[in-house]
Amino acid sequence: MNALLEDGRLLPLVEDFYTIQGEGFHAGKPAYFIRLGGCDVGCSWCDSKNSWNPRLFPPVSVEEIILRAVSHPAKSIVITGGEPLSYPLGPLCKALKAHGMEIFIETSGSHPLSGTLDWICLSPKQNKPPLPEIYPLAHELKVIITGPLDLEWAEYNRRKVSPGCRLFLQPEWSRREAVLPHIVSYAKANPVWNISLQIHKYMHIP
């Protein structure tokens, strides 16, 4: 796609907004979200399927994205998608760092890392698993649980991350009532795991 949109100087921006991080280790933290279009993982339960086709989103310059991002008081940026590592993130991260931003990314790990990242949240998907080199670099492992069998997938991934990686089990939103009892019981029996809830959905914010 146009040499990956001029080596990352342009990006298919789905949306960007200032909100409260709702998931994982940084839940409750004010942050500016940058959602990029394009995903070749295609989870059936994805809550941002509108982001999958990057051609629906005209390329936006990194400069324009930065102008909006730095206009808010928080210094935390979350790059998400889609699958944000589908594109070279070097230009975006370099510009954000020039403004003193702390950069978090949420990724399936199915594409190579790029850019300067302060926090890597790895959310592995069974239909397109992470690249082996991503596992030891992840600061946080967040596994989406749709049913009890997904706990085996969670353990498979836990064995691959570094000892200091934070571990989270997160119920898939549409099945949360059914799977939460299993997750609670599992975490109590295996206390290396924490539970992540999508608190932004309970707060009715983006």
Q: How would you explain this protein's 3D organization?
A:
This protein has 206 residues and is α/β, with parallel strands linked by helices. The protein has a single domain (2-203), classed as Alpha-Beta Barrel (TIM Barrel). Helix content is 25%, strand content 24%. The chain has helices at residues 2-8, 62-69, 90-98, 150-158, 176-189, 199-203, and strands at 10-20, 30-36, 59-61, 76-80, 102-107, 119-122, 140-145, 166-171, 194-195. Strands 3-1-2-4-5-6-7-8-9 form a nine-stranded mixed beta sheet. Helix 2 (62-69) packs parallel to helix 3. The longest helix has 14 residues, at 176-189. The radius of gyration is 17 Å and the shape is globular. 39% of the residues are buried.
Helix content: 25-40%
Q: Roughly how many Å is the radius of gyration?
A: 17 Å
Major beta-sheet overview: 9 strands, mixed
CATH homologous superfamily identity: Aldolase class I
Task: Give the SSE map.
Elements: H1 2-8, E1 10-20, E2 30-36, E3 59-61, H2 62-69, E4 76-80, H3 90-98, E5 102-107, E6 119-122, E7 140-145, H4 150-158, E8 166-171, H5 176-189, E9 194-195, H6 199-203
Parallel strand pairs: 2-4, 4-5, 5-6, 6-7, 7-8, 8-9
Antiparallel strand pairs: 1-2, 1-3
Helix pairs in contact: 2-3
